[in-house]
Amino acid sequence: MKKIFRVLGFTVAGVLFVVACAAAFVSVRGIPFYEAPKPQVANIDYTPVRVAQGQKIVNAMCADCHLSRETNALTGKFLPEIPEDFGKLYSANITQDKAHGIGAWTDAELVGLLRTGIGRDGRYRIVMPSFAHMSDEDVYSVIAYLRSNDAQVQPNPTPSHEQEPSFLAKALANTVMKPLPLPTQPVLAPSPTDAAAYGRYLVVGRYMCYDCHSKDFKTNNALEPEKSEGYLGGGNSFMTPDKKEIKSRNLTPDAETGIGDWTENQFVQAVRFGLSPHGPLNAPMPKFSLMDASEAKAIYAYLQTVPAIKHDIPLFGATASVATR
After folding, report:
1. Considering its fold, how many domains does the chain have in total?
2. Which residues span the domain enclosing 210?
3. How many C-alpha atoms does 136 have within 13 Å on its Cβ side?
4. Burial 255-285 (b: 16+ CB within 10 A, else e)
């Protein structure tokens, strides 16, 4: 019996030693670096049409995190909506400044970052969404806008703040949170004439609604979004600027807990103007005022096709809470 306990003791000690070594490795290594992606990108024409489309996408998907109210430019800032469990995380300067922004980046390097989450320096951006399903045309439009004469992207020498990830963030970045691979073939958007297919593209590709409106960032499946746990059923947690928790809304067609009892017009009003059937939406909604009504209608058409999930999300205060990137 003593021998059994001695063997058990050695086994437990060995396991604890391995765990301690792994924890020390994660703590020292921090957020991992990777080989910088090298996508094959032809010369991108910065046409007025692309600049306008890019402006719409950037203001919907990037400005919320990168726009500083102090500089009125995309110089980056502290991200208070990220739960404290992940530490203190900051968005980067993405103006055209060559030293502190992306002015020295090539178009291919920007495509690589947007697709995989890995920068030209090899650093993995753990909280930045990777646009694996965004069409090539939309990606090129984003880059065209970032190269434009708009005031938000003009060179600004504000340095990007160093990240202060928690041990949990480091551990996740070394285990379950991984960069995405580059697409192996052209990425095309469906025709807007197919409302449901186009709506799916908007939900998983252009606007990535599923990323916030599924159960948890940690269980989202970026390569196969529909396999994300609680796909579009809501419940993902965010922090308001005054440190109150808010959860994303259930967007499935469940009549009791989702949007199954919403009309198309009610959904359009909620997405574009922040006015839901139950009252004004809370931050970070509304944010899609530049979205075309046709886009919002396509999203509504697609949402009617996804499996209904009965998931009652407590309202934040007296109003409906919808969190979307």
Report:
1. 2
2. 195-303
3. 15
4. eebbbeebeeebbbbbbbebbbeeeebbbbb
